[in-house]
Write a structure and sequence with these properties.
Layout (H helix, E strand, L loop, with lengths): L3 E4 L3 H14 L2 E7 L6 H5 L2 E6 L10 H10 L4 E3 L9 H9 L3 E2 L4 H8 L1 H10 L15 H11 L3 E5 L8 E4 L2 H19 L4 E5 L5 E9 L5 E13 L2 E7 L6 H18 L3 E10 L2 E8 L6 H8 L3 H9 L16 E8 L11 E2 L2 E3 L6 E5 L6 E2 L6 E9 L2 H14 L1 E3 L5 H9 L1 H5 L6 H9 L1
Parallel strand pairs: 1-2, 1-4, 2-3, 4-5
Antiparallel strand pairs: 6-7, 6-8, 9-10, 9-12, 10-11, 11-14, 12-13, 14-19, 15-18, 16-20, 17-19
Length: about 450
Amino acid sequence: MFKKILIANRGEIALRIVRTCRDLGIKTVAVHSLIDKDSMHVRLADEAICIGKSSIKDSYLNSFAILSAAEITNSDAIHPGAGFFSENYEFASMVKKHKINFIGPTTEQIKSFGDKITAKKLMKKNKFPVIPGSDNYLKSIDEAIMIAKKIGYPVILKAGSGGGGKGIRVIKNRKELIANFTIVKQEVKNSFGNENIYLEKFFDNPRHIEIQIVADKGGNIVHLGERDCSIQRNKQKIIEETPSPTLSNSERKKICALVIKTIKKIGYESLGTVELLYKNKKFYFMEMNTRVQIEHTITERITGIDLIKQQIKIAAGQKISFKQKDVQFSGHSIQCRINAEDPHSFIPSPGRIEEYHSPGGPGVRIDSALYAGCIVPHQYDNLISKIIIYSRNRDEAILRLKRCLIEYVINGVKTNIPLHLKILNSKDYIRGNYHINWLDKFLSINY
């Protein structure tokens, strides 16, 4: 097992990793920017090193500073957390060259799944259903027109790398395709440094379903069920739950078995999440995330399995200590992402937390690095807390979650708590009748 792990991240996910390392008896090193010097993950780690100014590129995306910190502290592993370098194969390769363990899959697997077209080809080769569209990045508008005509409109232009909803445009007809082709390529270039775009069939109002897998270096692999991540604003997840209220037990069993079969053939190792679109009783591969997901919490809650602990053990060469038949699914879990933003305009709301009180009670988990007096910087993502609720069934979980949202006190910045309450009180959500475009439509009517 590792003796010391450097955590190349910040906020609640860094704190989450610190806690699991403590449970494993592993020392931790927190890296931080100047503005994060008083952050909770810095306070609770065994050691802390400032790696740069407050901007992301000068700190959390400063690979040389992070590697130097790892060498100075004699860390034998680096945990990338979620975001930043977590799916960057070049960083993972640098870590490996410095003879430091990268807690994640192999660099080749990060590279393969980090490229959308390569990932799509890999899954298709192993007979996993993929969304109809281009098999390679588009070279010209003529090629795009030809493929769109073949699969039928509407289609969607998408960036080959990156995420966060950038470089995505829904196209309804040939005229729109011609008008948007160059615009999307430029947007992708500005965001990700290349012009790689591809085209896929656009499904109207599908569900976003993802399957959590855990695989060790010895070829042992299990799934930990699915998560429904269809409540999204501008393609950013807001609320996640498990199990999905829309899937039947037979559908759940079938898709999880297919995911396991496919990923086992590929020889993947570490945590991983296969993201799917679900429409008309059919599943289609979207992408594979080779890191811990922000919403890993709800899977932990219904299975009782610490995913960060499994991720660390696998990276250290240990085998999974349980088999598929040992995984027991119990109850229902929902997570709300609390963002520091205006609940109506969604403009980020950085500032100092003047008053803080988190909700509690049975079945309540709060993953947050907030405390009274701390700073929510404007330089980083505005996710500041996650409320994770567990109960025997979905109806009870919704009621418990509403109670916690009402109890939650975060003064000094604006949050999207009022939005969450509106969603949870809507008839569609209560009935489980939603899809990836539902929230945007809901907001256009209610805001």
